[in-house]
Amino acid sequence: MKKMNKACSGLIALSLLAGLTVAVAPTVQAQSSQAGSYVNTKSKTVFYKNCSAVRKAGKAPLYKGEPGYRLKLDRDKDGVACE
């Protein structure tokens, strides 16, 4: 098991003493090679390899400001990717 920082382990210990159930979410990248995308749960960033991956994930079209949008996916640079 990986080491936890003191604040996190202290919070878990207090929760256990109070009889609460504790769920710890991982902060690693969840990767889907099939869809060609990944989500970094720690920073909440989304990356799609290409528009095919966006469509496979059911997220097309992507608008500027949405997770996963980037200029490389927006051919005509109008703020809408994978249209």
TrEMBL record:
Keywords: Hydrolase, Signal. The keyword Oxidoreductase does not apply. Residues 1-30 form the signal peptide. Residues 47-83 form the Excalibur calcium-binding domain. Pfam families: Excalibur. GO terms for molecular function: 3' overhang single-stranded DNA endodeoxyribonuclease activity. This is Micrococcal nuclease.
